[in-house]
Protein: N-acetyltransferase domain-containing protein
Organism: Aphidius gifuensis
Amino acid sequence: MDKHFDTCIYCDNVILVPYQEKHVKRYHGWMKSTELQHLTGSEPLTLEEEYKMQKSWVADKKKCTFIILDEKTFVTTNDEVESMIGDTNLYFNELYDDHSAECEIMIAEEKARGRKLGWQAITTMLYYGIKELGVLKYTAKIKIDNEKSIKMFTKLGFAEISRSKYFKEITLEKNITDNWLNWLQTETSLLINIKMSMSRQIFAFFKGKPIIINSMVYGSFYICAEFLQQTYQQREIAQNLMLENTNSRMPSGTLKIKHYETNENEKIDIMKILENYDWQVIQRYILYGYFMAGPILHTWYVWLDRTFVGKASRVILRKLLCDQFILTPPLLVLFFTSMSLMEGKDNIAAECKEKFVRTFQ
């Protein structure tokens, strides 16, 4: 179904993203499991067949499929494939009823089970189907021995309407009511990146792209440091001028006191000094901080956290040593050379050679 192809749905602990080609290999690996084949009533496919199936599902207007991501893993790795834990689907199979859909959910990763991620994913999918796709009735077909799924859908308010001994499955049904929809809405805490306020669109966008928000944070450190340094320098200049003006009006030998008077023109001059920031320098720090150092630091710390796991003293020490001796030297070289390049200097390496050792120490 192409209607939701650009839609991402954000919840507290899961993210639903459209099933895309990049997800196929991981999905194919899941479906080699005989347990999952049994529970989903699926036949094993080759990888090539799985790719064809993915393309057909995207084009099929009767199917709505989302891959379920673990939100915590995605925030840490920014990798959809690594964050995959399952999928959820809506099938519009009723020939004469476009408002009836069969719902399905699979949590394939064992480590993700028992954390209520499946509950969040299915309640979100059900709510999305009602609000965005116009669903008025849901059905769910579940294997008779899948007690956990039967219990979950019963808790959702579904009621059994039939059993099939041949397929060894039961069919449950839920007609949508206003009260149930209101309950579902409170249960989901839903953030959909379409048809919502601009502030929520921005929030959803950044929540799914940690490299952007982290680059802004790291980059802001550089910009704020330069801004504060210039502020300090301007205040020093202003204080010196005020002191000179005060002393110049005092008779020789008069005791110098902190209180002094100044005229309006002097105040204007002082304000001009305080506002006399070098904005070209600050602009260079914006470019370096947000677009160079920020992304590098984000990628580095993601790698560092994945390589050295834990909070033990030796782990922290290793991180500090790597940070100081592996990351810092090339980052300093990048800083000095990029600043020289943006300043238009002929020898972009000169400042680096002059200041590198002193700064690194």
